[in-house]
Amino acid sequence: MDEATARERVVSTADRLFYTRGVQAVGMDAVRTESGVSLKRIYGLFPSKDDLVLAVLRHRTERWNAGIAGALAGAGTPRERLLAVFDFLAGWFREDDFRGCAFINVFGELGGGSDRVAEAVREQKASFRRHVAELVREAGGPDHLAPQLVLLAEGAQTTAAISGDPGTAAHARAAADTLIRCALGDAGDAEGTTEA
Amino acid sequence: MDEATARERVVSTADRLFYTRGVQAVGMDAVRTESGVSLKRIYGLFPSKDDLVLAVLRHRTERWNAGIAGALAGAGTPRERLLAVFDFLAGWFREDDFRGCAFINVFGELGGGSDRVAEAVREQKASFRRHVAELVREAGGPDHLAPQLVLLAEGAQTTAAISGDPGTAAHARAAADTLIRCALGDAGDAEGTTEA
DNA sequence: TACAGTAGAGAACGATGGTTCTCCATGCAA
DNA sequence: TTGCATGGAGAACCATCGTTCTCTACTGTA
Questions:
Q1: Which SUPFAM superfamilies match (chains A, B) (predicted)?
Q2: Distance A1 CA to D4 C1' (A)
Q3: Domains plus CATH for chain A?
Q4: Which of A89, A185, B34, B62 sits at 20 to 30 Å (Cα–Cα) from A71?
Q5: Contacts 24+ apart (CB under 8 A), A32-38
Q6: Per-residue pLDDT tens for B45-104?
């Protein structure tokens, strides 16, 4: 088997298992069994479980970025692009295996014990904050709007995970719409969104 | 040692250790050593580690409820009482050992493996939602406002934990203020809060 | 066929976990 | 003093974990 293939199989298997059951609840043996890659090879590719966790987080970051990019691609105006973030969340929350934000979960589980993991999570969240700030600038919104929208997105992820209610995304979207309308100072023409 | 005293010592010790390092990273031996209560006695009080975790969550719920009640006690108008929730968060985020919401952390770590823990976390979050809904009703706000404010509070907790920035609470408060003013339909007289 | 090198299966190893058990000191009733 | 119940300290037990090692099968080459 190709090295790149083996790497990809291990990472995507570990991603699924870690996300579903938690990192510490999944042994390397389970990763081997489900990926079909031998322990020897896994440890050749990743020096330790911690490194595998970091690789999984990188993998998640790429999928997250691609998902967001895809959601934004269909949106026209800057304001629609901001709201598209919440539509993306809505679709994600409805997936069968949705179990909250992997970064938040991993941070809660390992953040106190592994500086590298904590740093990776921090960087992913900071990157999302920068992205939203950029979207806000494009929409002509004030600087304080971006962190507020980010809080809604983060809160929606944990609340949807714990309550199991995908409708959480709609609450977040409605709140975001209100904040955006207030910040942009107009009454909000577009696309039939009122409070829900 | 009194049974109630032993129980209290074990729970508060486990609470501190679990919160700081994560549940699975703390052995029962550490709980014994730091609480000064023997393993035999601990297992007499709590049949398993899972039961201890549940007791810790109950303990956290009581402290959370007391903290919120204390914060609300100093607030006058219903609108101030809503915003007082975010002032309470601000104080909490500034504590040295703040590491996010214990319920969210535990849910991420054990929610997939222990139904009882998942249920306890769900119940705590549902209880908070009901409380905020009650405050919104007292303020004369519409039903949809409460879940929006809850999302801000939840998002603030995870964001403050990961970023380490206590100022997160101010963003949440400002957003909440905006949502409240929009929902109540007036321009917002009170207590010098503008966007931040 | 003989050989070298690679990789997989899975045993082995040392550490640690949750839980239970043994043994001993203490205090109190008779 | 004797006997007995209580509870503490910590060893013991069994499972599991992350990691490494051994042995074997296989591949390609001369």
A1: Homeodomain-like (SSF46689), Tetracyclin repressor-like, C-terminal domain (SSF48498)
A2: 70
A3: 1-47 (1.10.10), 50-189 (1.10.357.10)
A4: A185
A5: A35/A9, A35/A10, A36/A9, A37/A1, A37/A6, A37/A9, A37/A10
A6: 999 999 999 999 999 999 999 999 999 998 889 999 999 999 999 999 999 999 999 999
